[in-house]
Amino acid sequence: MYYQLQEMLRKLIESGDLKPGDPIPSERELSEQHDISRMTIRQALTNLVNEGLLTRSKGRGTFVAEEKIEQPLMKLTGFSEDMRLRGIEPGSRLIQFDTVKAGDNVAKYLEIDPGTKVYQISRLRLGDGAPMAYETSFLRMDGLLLKETDLQGSLYALIEATLNKKIARARQTIEPSFATEDEAELLTVETGSPVLLLERITRFDDGTVFEYVKSAYRGDRYKFIADMQR
Known about the structure:
The chain is of the alpha+beta class. The protein has 7 helices and 11 strands. The protein folds into 2 domains: 2-64, Orthogonal Bundle (Arc Repressor Mutant, subunit A); 69-225, Chorismate lyase-like (Chorismate lyase, 3-Layer(aba) Sandwich). It has helices spanning 2-15, 27-34, 38-51, 79-85, 104-110, 155-163, 181-187; strands at residues 23-24, 54-57, 61-64, 69-72, 90-101, 117-127, 130-140, 167-178, 194-204, 209-218, 222-225. The strands form 3 sheets. The chain has a 6-stranded antiparallel β-sheet. A hairpin with a 2-residue loop joins strand 6 (117-127) and strand 7. Helix 1 (2-15) packs across helix 3. The mean pLDDT is 86. It comes from Salisediminibacterium beveridgei.
């Protein structure tokens, strides 16, 4: 029974009868409409959520998922640049902005001594006003003077203009995970929803590391693509 309901919803989505952002009736409503148990309903909906066709929003319900944003892995771009390339208006909400002493791990990634002061910036990254990722960056302070008003637009463009240096390359890792309670609240998804965890170490063209960033991207809105040749 769950498979029949699952396929019925899938066809409605694929045909366009259910469009991205449309709400799905509650488990109780679907149970009454189709005379099947709520456990069966829950299994069908969970399978479609796991496939990325549906998404759950904490406190709001289940909706048809928006089309995923494709992020190429062969080019280094900032979040704002990437959104604009796809015709999406970027935005951000500042969660934290501090100068902190680098711990052992951050110091290792930034190639500085532990205890060196660095910028710590946590931002909720938005696309057309919707949460896309929760990002925490650690930046070396060498010659870089930042204030809160600098953090609304593209940080990469600001850094290049301020330091007169070119951002050249990065090493990035990606792994699947599940949203923590804090991440879920910021990203407006349920705790335990799939997220993609990214860690990146970014360098200027002279080889100097300037940034270590870790981000949690919504798994229902993002997919990463790599073109490979043999």
